[in-house]
DNA sequence: CTGAAAGCGCTTACAG
DNA sequence: CTGAAAGCGCTTACAG
């Protein structure tokens, strides 16, 4: 390991700008008595050197940042886990809601550094190489939850066992005697649903049951996607007798679509969801679903982030936590 | 306004302890070369003076803290609002999950101060007088969302129009021709559900319809409470033809209890919920419910907190944001 | 506009 | 153990 380079201070900047420390300080504090040319020179130097005020580098208070897409139930579960794990180690968790794609350019990474964060956790989104460069120079580790891409092993990630989950859910339906089993929901672009879909395919193949191309629909994860997608599936001839849905919301939508066609769940149609969210036990019939360990994923992500921040080495760049089949009322013998 | 007393610094502490600044600094940094007696003396002085290291008082990064009970959908909605409003003003939001009652004694307040927070938002829980004293000495404003007690006007609070919401929901059922209307859910101890209940009573009284004591049940806000409470109500003779539930979860539970008794919703039983949470449009029938502006409550709470932190005066210690009736499928003419 | 100088809060190597 | 002294990162009133 090479020696840690000294952090950039005001005097570093002053020296390279050829001005006094006082002037740099004024720029930093937004004083008006600085020539525009001097100001912009100093500003760009400050950026180039990733300047972080020493007061932001305090020792006592550790804060990690978690970036979510919005406060849906899924994100809430994960956030809850990180907060819980943080409280155990006296670490605060700051939440941010992502704006555009890739969290808003390199300014995003720079802001994190100057806000004094010790690590960043993002959900289902990878920082860009430019962002990673800034974060790594600042020694700010990143952990991605539910990663879209596992090829870059320099970024740690945590996810559920999507493939195995899809496999187990489908095997459950096969074991009940179903063979006309459809896959519903998820996005073709989301790694998580791709993996669930491949788990489904693997189980079908194992059982020697062919997968009809029409039996796979990936409109999205929401309730409305479930209603729409299940509608299309149920209007096929022959119609499936069972649906494995990539999310509970989709599964609930499928129940709705089934009832709208006069089908009874589970007597005429078995449905297995994915998530085991709160709604899973509030529907009628209650959902059979794959439990996804959201809270635990948050806990592991936070602990990993903390270990990385402390300079520890991580055993595995990607960790998967077990999903588990919860049998309720929406699945029945064919 | 009296002059702002100077903040406690190491030299304040050193002077009152009769030691040097260096020694105080050592205690602060947990060095071992300090006599135990000196250490404990300095420690207690540090506590007494609410010492906050100057590095925690940085100017650039503003962080407010929001305390939630757990990451349920209700809290998630509010948190989402605060994060959104914070992002607009470059303010970070740190989340904490409450432990015991009153957030864990005075240590809680002290930790907030030394973590450098600029304000605190809590949900449905008031700081104790001892906690308030510490927070006010540190000039750390508190905003309570969904307050349990409005008597202390020194604490700002934000909530939904619970009373009016209960009134409007009940009037809706009255207007549909119902008179055997029951109230279900909420806790007798929660101000929010008390207010909803009184809105219900006011509407009934206005319409000249008596409220039967048996028709009011307050087992709690959850799905299971709804199933249980609605079961009791529906087994009464005469049974109610309509139920106003204090939460969507209760309302969904009531649908379940009704179906279990062979009753059709809304043909045999009308149900109005409260919250307009995600599940409201995922049930069958879809819920007629009072929309609660969670996101907006979060936004207003954060803005209020920021204004207080900036030393501005607030017009009203308590603000209520409008709830709104959303008519879907679970309510029908009697 | 600019910067030398004084000053603040804090830390640390070191002499006692 | 203790503290005088040097030093660090930063800010600010003020002279030019």
TrEMBL record, chains A, B:
GO molecular function, one term: transcription cis-regulatory region binding
Pfam families: LacI, Peripla_BP_3
CDD domains: HTH_LacI
Domain of life assignment: Bacteria
Residue ranges of coiled coil: none
UniProt KW keywords: DNA-binding, Transcription, Transcription regulation
PROSITE patterns per UniProt: HTH_LACI_2
SMART domains: HTH_LACI
The UniProt record lists the keyword Metal-binding: no
InterPro entries: HTH_LacI, LacI/GalR-like_sensor, Lambda_DNA-bd_dom_sf, Peripla_BP_I
Domain HTH lacI-type: 8-59
Protein name in UniProt: LacI family transcriptional regulator
Source organism (scientific name): Nonomuraea glycinis
């Amino acid at each position: 390991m090479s020696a840690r380079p000294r952090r950039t201070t005001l005097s570093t900047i002053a020296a390279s700008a050829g001005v006094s420390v006082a002037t740099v300080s004024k720029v930093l504090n937004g004083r008006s008595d600085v020539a525009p040319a001097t100001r912009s020179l100093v500003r760009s130097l400050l950026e180039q050197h990733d300047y972080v005020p020493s007061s932001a580098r305090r020792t006592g208070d550790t804060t990690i940042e978690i970036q979510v897409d919005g406060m849906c139930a899924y994100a809430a579960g994960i956030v809850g886990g990180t907060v819980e794990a943080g409280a155990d180690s006296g670490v605060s968790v700051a939440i941010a809601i992502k704006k555009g794609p890739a969290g808003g350019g390199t300014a995003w990474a720079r802001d994190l550094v100057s806000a004094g964060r010790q690590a960043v956790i993002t959900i289902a989104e990878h920082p860009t190489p430019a962002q990673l460069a800034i974060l790594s120079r600042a020694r700010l580790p990143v952990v991605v939850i539910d990663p879209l891409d596992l090829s870059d092993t320099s970024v740690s990630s945590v996810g559920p066992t999507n493939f195995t989950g899809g496999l187990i859910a489908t095997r459950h339906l096969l074991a009940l005697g179903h063979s006309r089993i459809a896959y519903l929901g998820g996005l073709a672009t989301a790694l998580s649903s791709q993996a669930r879909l491949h788990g489904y395919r693997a189980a079908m193949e194992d059982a020697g049951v062919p997968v009809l191309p029409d039996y796979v629909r990936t409109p999205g994860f929401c309730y409305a996607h479930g209603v729409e997608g299940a509608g299309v599936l149920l209007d096929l001839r022959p119609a499936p007798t069972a649906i494995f849905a990539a999310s509970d919301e989709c599964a609930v939508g499928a129940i709705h679509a089934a009832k709208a066609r006069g089908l009874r769940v589970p007597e005429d149609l078995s449905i297995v969801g994915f998530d085991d969210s709160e709604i899973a036990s509030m529907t009628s019939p209650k959902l059979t679903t794959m439990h996804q360990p959201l809270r635990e994923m948050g806990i592991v992500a936070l602990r990993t982030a903390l270990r990385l921040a402390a300079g520890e080495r991580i055993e595995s760049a990607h960790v998967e936590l077990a999903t588990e089949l919860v049998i309720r009322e929406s699945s029945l013998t064919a």
